[in-house]
Amino acid sequence: MSVKIDRIGSSIVKGVSYILATEIKDKDLKFVTVTDCKVTNDLSFAKIYVMVSDDNRKNEILKSLNNASGFIRRELVNHVDIRHIPELTFVYDESISNAQKIEDIIEKINNEEGKNQNIID
């Protein structure tokens, strides 16, 4: 990716975070954390990765975010300095939960090795 696209993605993350924290009326959306943004090379689409505080309501909150994407896109005009704001799509960021699963597996392996080491000694 180019530096320009990375910079625009970073600006979109900051702008969307600000809009969700201050300008959205839906209280559920105020506790959404924007983690990343991937913008296409032609700047027509942006995939915004988010995390929610309540995993049980993840699908409901993502649906609300995607329904509010038009409003968020209109508000981004005031926060991002580009001519055309890309179409926004919100997706759940699985990276933290995946990292936690990997960490649990590594811990389980280390615990099993420790038990096996005690048996050998």
Structure description:
The protein is elongated and about 65 Å long. It contains 4 helices and 3 strands; from the N terminus they run αββααβα. It has a single domain (3-94), classed as 2-Layer Sandwich (GMP Synthetase, Chain A, domain 3). By secondary structure, the chain is of the alpha+beta class. The mean pLDDT is 87. The longest helix is centred in the C-terminal third of the chain and has 26 residues, at 95-120. A hairpin with a 5-residue loop joins strand 1 and strand 2. It has a 3-stranded mixed sheet with strand order 1-2-3, covered by helices on one side. It has helices at 3-22, 58-67, 69-76, 95-120; strands spanning 32-39, 45-52, 87-92.
Short description:
The chain has 121 residues and is α+β, with helices and mostly antiparallel strands.
Which descriptors would you attach to this protein?
elongated; GMP Synthetase, Chain A, domain 3; 3-stranded mixed beta sheet; 121 residues
In the CATH hierarchy, what is the architecture at level 2? 2-Layer Sandwich
Got a strand count? 3
What percentage of residues falls in helices of 4 or more residues?
40-55%
Q: What sort of overall outline do the alpha carbons produce when their principal axes are compared?
A: elongated
Tell me the number of helical segments per DSSP (H or I, 4 or more residues long).
4
Please give the alpha-carbon distance between the first and last residues. Answer: 53 Å
**Main sheet: strand order:** 1-2-3
Mean pLDDT: 87
CATH superfamily: K homology (KH) domain
The parts where pLDDT drops under 50 for at least 5 residues are none
- Our estimate of the beta-strand percent is 15-25%
Structural class: alpha+beta
CATH class assignment: Alpha Beta
